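Weekly modeling sync, notes
Attendees: S.R. (lead), two postdocs, one rotation student

Agenda item 3: backlog of single-chain predictions. S.R. asked that every request posted to the team notebook include the full sequence so nobody has to chase files. The rotation student volunteered to paste the first one in as an example of the format we agreed on. Action items at the bottom.

Example entry:
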Amino acid sequence: MIITCGVCDKEFEMNKAVAVAYNPDKWELILICSEDCIKEYTDRFAKLLRIKIVKGGENEQES
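Predicted structure, as returned to the notebook:
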């Protein structure tokens, strides 16, 4: 089944989606086609959704 990426609007096969995410602009779940689109999505919505992006999976502690 051909679908459209929720970030870049590129058409791709649904079984090749790399992520599923929530689109707060349209109140719907979207499928994402690539790692680059995941980065663009998180950059775009991180402040809106109040997500803290942590590199390496660990919180860095200040000394």
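Discussion: group reviewed the output briefly. The radius of gyration is 14 Å.
Action items: rotation student to repeat for the remaining queue; S.R. to check formatting next week.
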